Amino acid sequence: MDALVQxxxxxxxxxxxxxxxxxxxDRKTPTEPNEDGHDSLRTRPLPEKxxxxxxxxxxxREIDERAYNPRTxxxxxxxxxxxxxxxxxxxxxxxxxxxxxxxxxQNMNQESLVDAMKELEGxxxxxxxxxxxxxxxDDFARMVVVDGCFIVExxxxxxxxxxxxxADDPIFATxxxxxxxxRDLLMLENQLPLFVLQKLYNLTRPGGEGITRDExxxxxxxxxxxxxxxxxxxxxxxxxxxxxxATENCDVASEYxxxxxxxxxxxxxxxxxxxxxxxxxxxxxxxxxSTTRNENLTMYRTFVGKGWVHSAKSLGNTGVRFRxxxxxxxxxxxxxxxxxxxFRTLFIDDSTTAVLRNLLVYEQYNRCAPSYxxxxxxxxxxxxxxxDDVAILKQSGIIWGQCGDEELVNLIKxxxxxxxxxxxxxxxxxPGTSPAxxxxxxxxxxx
Length: 447
Prior knowledge:
It is a single chain. By secondary structure, the protein is mainly alpha-helical. The protein folds into two domains: 2-41 and 289-438, no CATH class; 58-265, no CATH class. It contains 18 helices and seven strands. The chain has helices at 2-15, 58-61, 89-102, 110-119, 121-125, 137-162, 176-185, 194-203, 213-234, 259-265, 289-302, 312-317, 350-365, 372-383, 387-395, 405-415, 424-427, 433-438; strands spanning 21-22, 321-324, 335-337, 340-343, 346-348, 399-401, 421-422. It has a three-stranded mixed beta sheet with strand order 2-4-3. It has a two-stranded antiparallel ribbon with strand order 1-7. Helix 4 packs across helix 6 (137-162) and helix 14 (372-383) crosses helix 16. The relative contact order is 0.16. InterPro entries: DUF247_pln (IPR004158). Residues 1-44, 270-291 are annotated as: Disordered.
């Protein structure tokens, strides 16, 4: 008994070291923590001339090619004019014509929109990790107009659809098409800068002529908020917890790089479930920022991810129970209380898996993005080791998926391949995590 107590104490002390940065065996180089030792709550504004839209690296893409290639609609330059996506071009033109009809009395036509996008061309191109020299200026501006207007009109029509105000439209004639479009619009390679969508939204709504500077500023802010709200509502069916987004808890007035970044921000901790503050220093000795950072990185390089949290079956053998929280909700809402580890139900299907992988790769390519899903993937990778662990989570209602247990094990393990991540943010949102880790059985002594 005394030995077990000592083991629990050692595990608890080990689990609350100042820098819970994690590394697993298939990692490359460490990720440096922020100066304050933890992530910010939301995506921070990007510096000017910083790439925000990338082509997914080949070594990541080969893990699940389908997750990163749009299957229904091409948006932006990465998949411009791909033959397999040409069928949707007719719908783009139909949506553009619909928008132009609505603003026919405002001295605004397609060429006016193209001219407006040419003014933003330099700023728009700077958002991409490639130069796309093969796309001429006029073609680039027209592509942005067609793709951007398609998204804006899709969001407007979707809002009417949710309100039962939409007459018949082929896009909404089936349940599958909006989901397929939403999945593609949340792919990192399939993005337009959000400032483009906000500009097109403003240009294609009434009341923009002959206004004062103050009125223009007000309309610009309204466009940011309106586009953000419409987009979050449209993407609701693709949330991994199938929860309804409470826009009052989201920072819809802020600017984000693109739709994927906006969607990612909606998972940030709310006022109801704020993250605990970072731990206080254990000594009064003053250290420089660089010294603290070097110490953190040293721990990071030696901290092995797999086995840090024991598997569901192992935890169950020590009396830890798993339970799905009632109702749908944010999948990051995880708690450990009285030897019960509670999760929101995680819905795993073809579309949500693609969304999850793109959220992960977005976090990898953007140092300003909090590592919500990288942390979640690592936690799941530890809890799920064998089909028996998946069976426990399924029986508890924590995982819902139509694929088999072995397939789910392989999927969850694949999520952490080639990842760089920081466990700080997620762990600060799980009260009592240290006791949960300490309850894992001690490894057998070496012979």
